[in-house]
Design brief:
The protein has 339 residues and is of the alpha/beta class. Helix content is 30%, strand content 28%. The protein has helices spanning 15-25, 41-51, 76-93, 114-118, 165-170, 217-231, 256-268, 294-303, 313-318, 332-338; strands at 6-10, 33-37, 55-59, 97-100, 121-126, 133-141, 149-155, 158-161, 180-187, 190-202, 210-213, 238-244, 276-278, 281-282, 288-289, 308-312, 325-329. The protein has a four-stranded parallel sheet, covered by helices on one side.
Amino acid sequence: MKYGKVLYVSGEESIEQIKMRADRVCEEVTENLFLLSETNMENVSAVVDELKPVFIIIDSIQTMYTSDMDSAQGSVSQVRACGNELARIGKTKNIPVFIVCHVTKSGELAGPKIVEHLVDCVLNFTGERNQELRILRSYKNRYGTTSEIGAFEMAEEGLVEIENLSKTFLDGMEAGMEGSVTTAVYEGTRPLLLEIQALVSPANVGFARRSAIGVELSRLNMILAVLDRKAGISLINQDVYVNVVGGLKPEGTSTDLAVALAIHSTFKGSPCPEKTIALGEVGLTGDLRSVPNADKIVKEAARMGFERIILPYKNAIKLENSSVKLVGARNLREAIIFF
């Protein structure tokens, strides 16, 4: 707020409630922060004309309404009209506008898609209710990448940035446990180390269950089919559960090998090797496809103290001078043997 006045328009909470929260999480509040408890767009526009802020926060768009329409607050027509008015204010006055929007149970923005089309960037906070970790991800960005993430921890003073995210995801991981494999993904501009857990148990009644948290269920079914046909591990009468520890839902396919090895470990009752990472994409033919940014992932693994990495053969031959022992596997059967 050192650049000028900031206008915070709240239709959700009163000014007194916001003040109580600010006293709890902020050491001091600048005089350049102006609060406005208002839901009428015409009144908000008048305050903007008078105050001339350099930044506007609207909390939230579903509580705003314009008197030009008779429909209720939060309706499709009201959200569309208020969104268009905020876009006009931002473009004509050259003021950045931050809009808070309600989300549905599936995590999508509530209301018409016009809100997503109007804005330049859509940011979303994700995280499990029983955990303090929160992931900030961009689902739309007209001027940058959408693969970059931010990691924060909920503390007494508010959200605090997590600098060593890999260490956070691996905290509590016990060495030599069955069904627990460390893997790595590349999110935005940094590699992240994750723990994949799997559990296999006999199916008692009916069809075997497949449950996945953090991994697409269709991807899990494909890996199980490859394990059956290409590695000789039949799980047709076994319930299979897979979980990505920490609540992160990694994008891409570099975690395929770790999922397969975690399932193999718990099914065979064999503990996972210590200080070992597995990464690679599993193809339908059982081969291991190379993963991008493997060199940066290897450096992160060495920094975190890992000594051995099982990865696709094509990646391994390009990283021969690594300080970590690289085990290149051409297919899933070889990876299981090396594991």
